[in-house]
Amino acid sequence: MSTRIFRLTVDDHIMIAHSLQSPFFGPAQGLHGATLSIHATFERAGLDEHGVVMDIGEATGLLDQALAPLRYANLDERPEFEGTYSTTEKVIEHIAETLTSQLPEGHGLRALEVEAEEHPRARAEVRVELV
Ligand SMILES: Nc1nc2c(c(=O)[nH]1)N=C([C@H](O)[C@H](O)COP(=O)(O)OP(=O)(O)OP(=O)(O)O)CN2
């Protein structure tokens, strides 16, 4: 019997400021701003008893909650990124960890993914396997 894998994606964005303080990052060592388009995808094998991966309102709410502390923030001042570089990869890792920790008991999801578009020519993604 075949298994159907369903995915639900919700979108949002954050405006942040940060600096990447290593010569590795060239001019991005200086403080600069970025608008990150964020996409969160929730994945389930089959659908739940309501015929959904999860409620869209719940998904957008979870993403909004995860992004709230980062909106208009200078990431250089945020404890989440202390001692590390607030690269797009680290930002999506943080969002994915926050989303994972916010999922309700018995969510039944198989995985979640977070993608951020840093600019029109670059994006990063992370996938968290939940089972
Ligand atoms: N893997 C990543 N690389 C870089 C990130 C990142 O988040 N992940 N971020 C930056 C900067 O914040 C910015 O987005 C781009 O800065 P820029 O100096 O234009 O960087 P480029 O690598 O595109 O170009 P250079 O040739 O290094 O100037 C940088 N890298």
From TrEMBL:
Pathway info: Purine metabolism; 7-cyano-7-deazaguanine biosynthesis
Needed co-factor(s): Zn(2+)
Entry EC number(s): 4.1.2.50
GO molecular function: 6-carboxytetrahydropterin synthase activity; metal ion binding
Keyword Zinc: yes
Zinc keyword on record: yes
Stored Pfam families: PTPS
Catalysed reactions listed for this entry: 7,8-dihydroneopterin 3'-triphosphate + H2O = 6-carboxy-5,6,7,8-tetrahydropterin + triphosphate + acetaldehyde + 2 H(+)
Assigned keywords, A-Z: Lyase, Metal-binding, Zinc
SUPFAM superfamilies: Tetrahydrobiopterin biosynthesis enzymes-like (SSF55620)
Similarity section: Belongs to the PTPS family. QueD subfamily.
The name this protein goes by in its record: 6-carboxy-5,6,7,8-tetrahydropterin synthase
Organism: Nesterenkonia cremea
Gene: ptpS
